[in-house]
UniProtKB/TrEMBL annotation:
NCBIfam families: PRK14186.1, PRK14189.1. GO terms for cellular component: cytosol. Residues 6-120 form the Tetrahydrofolate dehydrogenase/cyclohydrolase catalytic domain. NADP(+) binds at G165, R166, S167. The lineage of its organism: Bacteria, Pseudomonadati, Pseudomonadota, Betaproteobacteria, Burkholderiales. This is Bifunctional protein FolD. GO terms for biological process: L-histidine biosynthetic process; methionine biosynthetic process; purine nucleotide biosynthetic process; tetrahydrofolate interconversion. Homodimer.
């Protein structure tokens, strides 16, 4: 048996086309959806990510502005700028690229963003809304994983989902989203002994740790859905996930590749959240 591929590139294209359509509708009633991105310092990866976010936005009809500040910007000045954007009705989404320079308290910075504009879904109000099943913004990576499961028509009700990783931006929200769809959810992490004993029971595995070859074929139940959130480099410097793709694809029913899986979906869901923010603000 060879797993079917869940193609994040193809699915993200569909999502972006839907977003573009809804943006056109907003524009037809005089609303220009707008995303403000703040980048502090010159971290090379952050520069690439924020450039992608701007390009993705403009391609779908969102107006995106990237504000760049030097690494020695004071936290007080950053908070003042965020408050000004909170008060600006023409801005619907605010994203502060992480990591921030060490002299800043990232938590305080994120909490300063208005929850109504928190398109990353990182604010405690967004996390709390997800916890209790209220409308809010879902973090883009787990949201994209849910879209992937939806795209293959995988009914989660009563299924056992094993999430490996407990970060605030992937593992924990992922578990809550799966729970909301009536899956039975197990969260595994670095202190979990015998990870395979858990994953072998899983109908769905979401690997979000950041360790290459964490999930191998012997750890996967035949036919299971395997979603790989990992972003690592192999010995040859090639991008790879947390899952031994070649081995696991022989056992799994569905699998996401790296690259071309969760990554493009994460990018697409930021556009969905920003559109959603604009629609809510102007409804
Ligand atoms: N740094 C790496 N990924 C992200 C992300 O999704 N959002 C923000 N704000 N910073 C990041």
């Amino acid at each position: 048996m060879t797993a079917q591929l869940i193609d994040g590139n193809a699915l993200s294209k569909q999502v972006r086309a839907e977003v573009a359509h809804r943006i056109a509708e907003l524009k037809a009633r005089g609303v220009q959806p707008r995303l403000s991105i703040i980048l502090v310092g010159d971290d090379p990866a952050s520069q690439v990510y924020t450039r992608h976010k701007v390009n993705d936005s403009t391609e779908t009809g969102l107006a995106a502005t990237l504000e760049r500040y030097p690494a020695d910007l004071s936290e007080a000045d950053l908070l003042a700028r965020i408050r000004a954007l909170n008060a600006d009705d023409s801005v619907h989404g605010i994203l502060v690229q992480l990591p921030l320079p060490r002299h800043m308290d990232a938590h305080r910075v994120i909490e300063t963003i208005s929850p109504a504009k928190d398109v990353d879904g990182f604010h405690v109000a967004s996390a709390g809304a997800l916890l209790v099943g209220q409308p809010g913004f879902w973090p883009c990576t787990p949201y994209g994983c849910m879209k992937m499961l939806e795209s293959i028509g995988f009914g989660l009700r009563g299924k056992h989902a094993v999430v490996i990783g407990r970060s605030n931006i992937v593992g924990k929200p992922m578990a809550l989203m799966l729970l909301q769809k009536n899956a039975t959810v197990t969260i595994c992490h670095s202190a979990t002994p015998d990870l395979g004993a858990f994953t072998r029971q899983a109908d769905v595995i979401v690997a979000a740790v950041g360790r290459r070859n964490l999930v191998t074929a012997d750890m996967v139940k035949p036919g299971a859905v395997v979603i790989d959130v990992g972003m690592n480099r192999d010995d040859a410097g090639r991008l790879c996930g947390d899952v031994d793709f070649e081995g696991v694809r022989q056992v799994a029913g569905w699998i996401t590749p790296v690259p071309g899986g969760v990554g493009p979906m994460t990018r697409a869901m930021l556009l969905v959240n920003t559109l959603e923010a604009a629609e809510r603000a102007t409804a």
